[in-house]
């Protein structure tokens, strides 16, 4: 069996950043396995701008952003296999994969980084009733048809869900000559970035219908229309508001699900809220030596955050392989999503791993809130607090904590991330 | 001129054709759809029923039992996924035991001899996720699960390999009979034959009427289902029925042969024989009723939903036999449940009816009951898979990630005896697109492979025939 120090699964921005960092930190033997025919992951189909403002300090397209990392991978001579699908990971850190040159093969790794990204939620997951014609696509699939294959999926379009991919596709299809009739969003707010709503919908007069959903699909062969209805506070459709909207295409931009089938089979503990592995502040999963980063850990809206998080994972894997700063796994602080918070990453902090000056906690709020404070609290002690005029679930939030403060917390205690409003004490 | 034309390439028509292909006959099967198994045979519960349910003495009872007994051999001959899981009829009140006893006696009369009534402890041991309210159950070890479209496709392919012909997208619209010859008007021209078999499912009354036979009617009754991700596939180990009550027949929860979990169906009489749409009412009914059996059913696992239409005949039983107006027109109509189970037995019976009505059945010595086995890459051992990749690198290129279907599998599905012509047909043959992402990742690649293999442009590749195209035109 072939032996490799570090196997990185997935050659998207997460996998590349992690691999590059691990090599910089001294791991000689790194291998990236990627199932597509090029590195770059989902960025390969993102020909729009809006990547890299934070990480590179300039605005790039997805392709350009990916190209910078692909360059780094090449310059550092990191080997990678393309069109290579990982079939299985063992908890003993074996990786089984298949491709068309080597067939099925198994690699024994010292450490593994999971960077498999995510997939889109489908119509089935939403359980939208009606017929089953052609013309219903997830937004990412439609993006692939348009940007990679150069084909238009349809000419009159309704988009369900105001996630970023849906917003970007509304603009793209309009520019290609299709009529985008509306974007329906079940919630009272969009889960997409504000700048995308302005640049992709408002600028093209595409209506964003908040509190609306698609309640039925019509058409036997090709889609002929959808029924759209307003929903009440409990997100239940109001029958009197139902309206038939003729269209030949329905795009679904209703969320992404981290791809963790491999992780599950390897016995890695998953967080039911993020659908990603439970990780510590070094991005290590419940299985020692297996790390996770990028969209496989939790869905990111900015690739810049993905790169940062993945560098951390790469560095941690390097330390693990080289035997530096490997923490005692027993002493942990639990990070808890408190009032108004949907989830946090990491979900726990290992006390012995506080070798860096600070620890960043990423999280999403559960609803849209105004004039609030985001806080990290242990018992009655507030470690950090930040005022925010508006927070939305669509934009990931972070709090940076000083390691020196965290060291004060006893193992087993909870670090609560929460939303505080001004009425409250303290 | 054909000896026999069979109308309908569902599971009934397929097994009739296969049975007839044992003899020196010229046989043609026609279907209006673009693939076999596009009617009821693709959307049902996929259960091989044990046979305790049907009223003793009916054709349903007789052919169910016979079909059940044949299924193991058939599944081997035709390389069809089949598992004899057993089934349970669970009951939520102690009094129900009397009705279970009745079912057991009925089963015994029908010839199902191994039925057993089991108590709560044994039930929970067999099915840990069963509701605490389930107190007693009828256990039928001989029930099983099967892949219905694979069964239909492989039976039809076997018939074709033994000389039968198949014409798809060929809709029958009129029948005339003169001097012992049927003249069939179809969308593919006039076809002549000496015997006509009506296996047109929901439309078998329409076909009968074309020949002036108004002796029965078929009414559609819809059943809706939800299908759950493979991680829920071992949520139950057997087919779990509920004892019917005055509130309804209950819904079943079952693993599928591919390892998913299937939940449904409800039952609703409708008017439109083409209406296989799902409804929010139907889907929530199915989920709520299923939770009586398995309260912890997790709806987040749902990956798709669908509906099938039962072809409910006005006589209450299967209608198999010569038409009262013409004994050369043989009906295999009203084939509602347990039609899938009974199909091989229906095939035999129809051959027998044809013989009694004058068709000469002369054995064909070169008849072969087996179809050529195709092993998909993912089911190969590591060394077989490596060999396969060496011979054809396409075995190493995974197209459908969720189900691990390779390019070689997809190409093979297009090149087989009854080859796939559209994306859904590839899906039914290979499972590409049947997984948790429902084709999100792989459908662009499948479209590409179909376009290349069939030599047609992207814009002509359809989801399921007709106007169901994926892509309209090239971008600017
Ligand atoms: C349409 C869209 C628009 C976006 N717009 C913006 C934007 O404007 N600005 C911005 O900053 N961010 C944007 N993002 C977010 C950002 O691009 C993503 O968060 C980022 O690409 C995630 O990186 P990743 O490496 O985790 O995942 P991915 O890019 O999905 O990479 C995962 C890789 O793993 C591979 N893989 C998975 N499983 C296996 C396996 N079993 N074997 C081998 N390989 C495997 C996959 O093929 C893939 O290449 C957008 C995202 C999308 C989808
Ligand atoms: C909800 C539901 C659950 C079921 N569960 C089970 C089960 O668990 N176990 C079981 O044993 N059975 C079950 N059944 C029953 C089983 O599915 C059917 O009995 C069986 O599939 C019927 O097959 P068929 O070939 O008769 O009909 P179909 O599969 O409907 O085939 C008829 C064919 O005729 C073609 N046709 C019709 N008119 C014309 C025309 N004019 N010209 C050309 N072609 C025409 C149609 O296109 C169609 O392909 C279930 C049925 C339903 C609806």
In CATH's first tier, which class of the largest domain in chain B applies? Alpha Beta
- Overall domain count of chain A: 3
What percentage of the residues of chain A does DSSP assign to strands (E)? 25-35%
CATH topology of the largest domain in chain B: D-Amino Acid Oxidase, Chain A, domain 2
Bound small molecules, by name, code or SMILES, are:
flavin-adenine dinucleotide
Reading off the top of the CATH hierarchy, the class of the largest domain in chain A is best stated as Alpha Beta
Main beta sheet strand tally, sense and closure of chain B: 8 strands, mixed
Would you identify the CATH H-level superfamily of the largest domain in chain A? FAD/NAD(P)-binding domain
CATH topology of the largest domain in chain A: FAD/NAD(P)-binding domain
Verbal overview:
The complex is a heterodimer of chains A (426) and B (476). Chain A has 426 residues and is of the alpha/beta class. Chain A folds into 3 domains: 1-120 and 256-326, 3-Layer(bba) Sandwich (FAD/NAD(P)-binding domain); 122-254, FAD/NAD(P)-binding domain (3-Layer(bba) Sandwich), CATH 3.50.50.60; 330-426, Immunoglobulin-like. In chain A, 21% of the residues lie in helices and 35% in strands. In chain A, helix 1 (13-24) links the parallel strand 1 and strand 2. In chain A, helix 1 (13-24) packs parallel to helix 8. Chain B has 3 domains: 2-41 and 149-217 and 315-356, FAD/NAD(P)-binding domain (3-Layer(bba) Sandwich); 81-145 and 219-311, D-Amino Acid Oxidase, Chain A, domain 2 (2-Layer Sandwich); 377-460, Arc Repressor Mutant, subunit A (Orthogonal Bundle), CATH 1.10.10. In chain B, helix 1 crosses helix 8, helix 2 (59-77) packs across helix 8 (339-356) and helix 10 packs across helix 12 (443-454). Chain B is globular, with a radius of gyration of 22 Å. Strand 11 of chain A pairs antiparallel with strand 23 (473-474) of chain B. The complex binds flavin-adenine dinucleotide (2 copies). The site of one flavin-adenine dinucleotide has 40 residues of chain B, from helix 1, strand 18 and helix 8.
């Amino acid at each position: 069996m072939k032996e490799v120090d570090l196997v990185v699964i997935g050659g998207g921005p997460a996998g590349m950043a992690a691999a590059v960092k691990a090599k910089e930190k001294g791991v000689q033997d790194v291998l990236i396995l990627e199932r597509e025919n090029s590195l770059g992951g989902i960025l390969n189909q993102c020909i729009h701008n809006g990547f890299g403002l934070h990480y590179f300090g300039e605005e790039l397209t997805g392709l350009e952003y990916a190209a910078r990392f692909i360059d780094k991978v090449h310059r550092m001579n990191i080997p990678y296999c393309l069109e290579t699908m990982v079939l299985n990971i063992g908890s003993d850190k074996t990786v089984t994969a298949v491709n068309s040159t080597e067939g099925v093969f198994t690699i024994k790794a010292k450490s593994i980084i999971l960077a498999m990204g995510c997939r889109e939620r489908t119509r089935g997951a939403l359980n939208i009733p009606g017929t089953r014609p052609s013309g219903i696509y997830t937004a990412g699939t439609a993006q692939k048809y348009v940007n990679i294959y150069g084909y238009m999926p349809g000419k009159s379009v309704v988009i369900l869900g105001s996630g970023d991919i849906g917003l970007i596709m509304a603009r793209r299809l309009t520019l290609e000559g299709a009529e985008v009739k509306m974007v329906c969003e079940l919630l009272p707010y969009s889960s997409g970035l504000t700048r995308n709503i302005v640049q992709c919908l408002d600028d093209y007069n595409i209506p964003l219908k908040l509190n609306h959903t698609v309640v039925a699909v019509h058409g036997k062969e090709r889609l002929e229309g959808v029924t759209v209805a307003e929903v009440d506070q409990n997100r239940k459709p109001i029958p009197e508001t139902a309206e038939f909207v003729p269209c030949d295409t329905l795009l679904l931009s209703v969320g992404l699900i981290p791809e963790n089938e491999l992780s599950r089979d390897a016995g890695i503990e998953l967080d039911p809220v993020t659908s990603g592995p439970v990780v510590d502040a070094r991005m290590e999963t419940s299985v020692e030596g297996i790390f996770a980063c990028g969209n496989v850990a939790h869905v990111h809206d900015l690739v810049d955050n993905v790169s940062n998080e993945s560098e951390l994972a790469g560095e941690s894997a390097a330390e693990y392989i080289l035997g530096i700063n490997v923490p005692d796994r027993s002493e942990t602080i639990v990070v808890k999503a408190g009032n108004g918070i949907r989830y946090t990453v990491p979900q726990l902090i290992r006390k012995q791993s506080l070798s860096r000056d600070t620890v960043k906690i990423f999280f999403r709020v559960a609803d849209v809130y105004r004039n609030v404070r985001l806080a990290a609290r242990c018992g009655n002690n507030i470690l950090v607090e930040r005022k925010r005029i508006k927070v939305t679930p669509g934009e990931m939030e972070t709090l940076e904590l000083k390691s020196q403060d965290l060291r004060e917390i006893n193992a087993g205690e909870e670090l609560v991330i929460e939303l505080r409003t001004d009425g409250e004490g303290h | 001129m054909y000896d026999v034309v069979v109308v309908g390439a569902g599971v009934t028509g397929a097994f009739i054709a296969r049975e007839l292909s044992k003899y020196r006959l010229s046989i043609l099967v026609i279907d209006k759809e673009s693939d076999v198994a596009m009617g009821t045979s693709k959307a049902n519960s996929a259960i091989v029923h044990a046979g305790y349910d049907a009223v003793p003495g009916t054709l349903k009872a007789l052919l169910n039992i016979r079909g059940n007994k044949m299924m193991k051999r058939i599944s081997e001959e035709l390389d069809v996924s089949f598992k004899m899981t057993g089934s349970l009829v669970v009951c939520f009140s102690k009094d129900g035991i009397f009705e279970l006893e009745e079912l057991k006696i009925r089963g015994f009369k029908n010839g199902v001899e191994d039925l057993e009534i089991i108590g709560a402890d044994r039930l929970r041991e067999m099915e840990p996720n069963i509701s605490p309210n389930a107190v007693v159950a009828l256990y039928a070890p001989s029930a099983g699960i099967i892949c219905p479209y694979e069964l239909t496709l492989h039976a039809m392919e076997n018939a074709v390999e033994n000389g039968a012909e198949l014409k798809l997208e060929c809709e029958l619209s009129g029948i005339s009979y003169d001097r012992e010859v049927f003249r069939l008007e179809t969308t593919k021209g006039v076809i002549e034959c000496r015997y006509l078999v009506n296996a047109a499912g929901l439309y078998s009354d329409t076909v009968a009427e074309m020949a002036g036979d108004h002796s029965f009617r078929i009414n559609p009754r819809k059943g809706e289902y939800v299908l759950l991700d493979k991680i829920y596939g071992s949520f139950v180990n057997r087919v779990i029925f509920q004892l019917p009550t005055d509130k309804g027949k209950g819904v079943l929860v079952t693993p599928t042969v591919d390892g998913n979990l299937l939940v449904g169906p409800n039952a609703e009489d409708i008017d439109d024989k083409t209406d296989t749409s799902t409804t929010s009412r139907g889907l929530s009914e199915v989920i709520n009723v299923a939770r009586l059996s398995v309260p912890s059913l997790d709806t987040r696992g749902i990956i798709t939903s669908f509906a099938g239409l039962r072809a409910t005949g006005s006589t209450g039983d299967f209608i198999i036999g010569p038409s009262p107006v013409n004994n050369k027109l043989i009906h295999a109509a009203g084939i509602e449940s347990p039609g899938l189970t009974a199909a091989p037995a229906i095939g035999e019976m129809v051959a027998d009816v044809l013989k009694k009505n004058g068709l000469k059945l002369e054995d064909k010595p070169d008849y072969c009951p087996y179809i050529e086995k195709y092993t998909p890459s993912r089911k190969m051992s590591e060394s077989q898979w490596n060999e396969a990749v060496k011979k054809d690198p396409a075995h190493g290129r995974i197209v459908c990630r969720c189900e691990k279907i390779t390019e070689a599998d997809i190409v093979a599905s297009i090149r087989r005896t009854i080859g796939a012509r559209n994306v859904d047909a590839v899906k039914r043959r290979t499972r590409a697109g049947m997984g948790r992402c429902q084709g999100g990742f792989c459908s662009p690649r499948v479209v590409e492979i179909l376009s290349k293999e069939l030599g047609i442009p992207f814009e002509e590749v359809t989801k399921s025939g007709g106007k169901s195209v994926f892509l309209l035109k090239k971008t600017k």
